[in-house]
Design brief:
The chain contains 6 helices and 12 strands. It is α/β, with parallel strands linked by helices. It folds into 2 domains: 3-102, Translation factors (Elongation Factor Tu (Ef-tu), domain 3, Beta Barrel); 114-242, Rossmann fold (3-Layer(aba) Sandwich). The strands form 2 sheets. The protein has a 6-stranded antiparallel beta sheet, covered by helices on one side. The chain has a 6-stranded parallel beta sheet with strand order 10-9-8-7-11-12, sandwiched between helices. The protein is globular. It binds flavin-adenine dinucleotide and NADP nicotinamide-adenine-dinucleotide phosphate. Residues 39, 53-56, 73-76, 78, 80-84, 122, 125, 241, 243-245, 247-248 line the site of flavin-adenine dinucleotide.
C-alpha cells in the first residue's frame, strides 16, 4: 500500500545537460519499500494548483521490498514543464511531499526463456532497479534478457557503465543502446544506430519463448506493442509503462 512522506534531496548530478539524477531520503528516517519497476509520485503546487508527477525508482538494491535508505530518480527536463521547473531548481536539503510506491510494471515472478526490456530516455530507470533480480534470474533459470535502449546521442545513454558491465560480465544479458541521431566511431560493438523498433524486428519476436517490457516514450511503446502483437505475442506478454504527463493525457475540448 502507498505511503505519504516527505523527501529531502541529499545528492544529485547531471546525467547530461537536460537530465538530472536525484537522490532523496525520507525526512521521517523510515526506509522506503518498493518492488523494482515501481514509481513514486512527487506532490507540489504550481500556479495555485495541486500537482503530482510520477518518477520511476532507479535505486539498485538486492532486496528493495525490505526497504532502502535512498530513493534515486532520473528526471528528464521538459521545456515549460511544472515539475521540471521545480526539480531543476532543487538544492541539497530542499524538501518535497511524495507518496509511493505505485505500479505494476515489475518483472513476472517467473522469467520467460527470452525477456525483452525496451526503453527510451528515462524509461530505462526501472530496468536499472531490476538489475539484481535479472542477474539472479539468469543464474537460476536458463533464460536470456535483452535490453534495447533508445537515446539520441552516446552521451545521453543513462547508466551506460552499469548496463555495459552487466553485458560484458553476465552471459545471458544482452544490452543494445540504439542511438537515433549520431553513432560515434569509437562506440562499443553492441551500440546501434536507429530506433529500438529496428533492433526488435531483427530479433524476430517469438510468442513461444518471449515476453516484452516497454517503458518510456508513448509513441515508442505503442509502436512496439503493435509489432509484438503482429508477431503473435498475447497481450499479457507485452507489459507497458507509458511516461505520459497528465497534461498530454487531457483530451482536447470539442470545438464550439
Ligand atoms: C508511471 C510514470 C513514470 C514516470 N517516470 C519518469 C521518470 O522516471 N523520469 C522522468 O523524467 N519522467 C517520468 N515520467 C514523466 C513525469 O511524470 C512527468 O510527466 C515529466 O517529468 C514532465 O512533467 P512536467 O511537470 O515537467 O511537465 P508538464 O507540466 O506536465 O508538461 C509541460 C509540457 O511538456 C509536454 N510534455 C510533458 N512530458 C513530455 C515528454 N516526455 N515529452 C515531450 N513533451 C512532454 C506537455 O504536453 C506540456 O505541453 C513518468 C510518468 C509516468 C506516468
Ligand atoms: N536534443 C533534443 O532535441 C532533446 C534533448 C533532450 C530532451 N529533449 C526533450 O525533452 C523531452 C524528453 O526527452 P527524452 O530524451 O527524455 O525522451 P524522448 O523524447 O522519448 O527521446 C528518447 C529517445 O526516443 C526516441 N524516440 C522518439 N520517438 C520515438 C518513437 N516513436 N519510437 C522510438 N523511439 C523514439 C528519440 O529519438 P528522436 O528524438 O531522434 O526521434 C530519442 O532517441 C522531450 O520533450 C524531448 O523533445 C529534446
Amino acid at each position: 500500500m502507498a505511503e505519504q512522506f516527505q523527501l529531502q534531496l541529499v545528492d544529485s548530478h547531471m546525467l547530461y545537460d537536460s537530465c538530472r539524477h536525484m537522490v532523496f531520503r525520507r525526512v521521517d528516517g523510515q526506509a522506503f519499500r518498493f518492488i523494482a519497476g515501481q514509481f513514486i509520485q512527487l506532490h507540489f503546487q504550481h500556479d495555485g494548483a495541486d500537482l503530482r508527477r510520477s518518477y520511476s525508482v532507479a535505486t539498485v538494491s538486492e532486496d528493495p521490498q525490505s526497504g532502502v535508505e535512498q530513493i534515486e530518480i532520473a528526471v528528464s527536463y521538459v521545456s515549460g514543464g511544472a515539475a521540471t521547473e521545480l526539480l531543476s531548481a532543487m538544492q541539497n536539503g530542499d524538501r518535497i511531499d511524495a507518496s509511493g510506491s505505485y505500479g505494476r510494471f515489475v518483472l513476472n515472478a517467473e522469467p520467460e526463456r527470452r525477456n525483452f526490456l525496451i526503453a527510451t530516455g528515462t524509461g530505462v530507470t526501472p530496468y536499472r532497479a531490476m538489475l539484481p533480480q535479472i542477474r539472479s534470474f539468469i543464474e537460476q533459470a536458463n533464460c536470456q534478457f535483452v535490453l534495447l535502449f533508445g537515446c539520441r546521442h552516446g552521451h545521453e545513454v543513462l547508466y551506460a557503465d552499469e548496463f555495459q558491465a552487466m553485458h560484458e560480465q553476465v552471459e545471458g544479458f544482452e544490452y543494445i543502446p540504439c542511438l537515433s541521431r549520431t553513432l560515434p566511431e569509437d562506440s562499443p560493438d553492441n551500440v546501434r544506430r536507429g530506433y529500438v523498433q529496428t533492433q526488435l524486428q531483427q530479433f524476430s519476436p517469438d510468442p513461444g519463448t518471449d515476453i516484452a517490457y516497454l517503458c518510456g516514450n508513448p509513441d515508442m511503446v505503442d509502436d512496439c506493442f503493435r509489432m509484438l502483437k503482429e508477431a503473435g505475442l498475447p497481450v499479457p506478454k507485452i507489459r507497458r509503462e507509458k511516461y505520459v504527463s497528465p497534461v498530454i493525457r487531457t483530451p482536447k475540448a470539442p470545438s464550439a
